[in-house]
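Q: Hi! First time doing this. I have a protein sequence and I read that you can turn it into a structure. Is that right? Here it is:
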Amino acid sequence: TIKREGLIAEIDRGINAFEEIVMFIKEGEKFYVNLSTRIDQLATSTTDYCFVREIQRKDLEAQLAARNAGGGGGGGGGGSGGGASATSPPQSYATSANGGGAYPGMQRP
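A: Yes, that's right. Below is the predicted 3D structure, encoded as structure tokens:
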């Protein structure tokens, strides 16, 4: 009968809507899993960057303390700087020839 066919059609639309919602939920889950992985990667690389910068800061402080304790005196940047200008980074920060970076053997805590 017509009433029965209408009821079956409505149930069919409900099933189709349910399947569409399930598909959207699965797509959303994939998106958030992918996003979570990328956020973890970003957090790791940010932590690594901060760790290396902290080591560089400590090294630079030690170099400045040694320079101030060793020569002191008259400002102006002359003296025995080993040929480095005031704007060039310290030698220890240069990238090594084998591509190991500034601290090739360094391990994060």
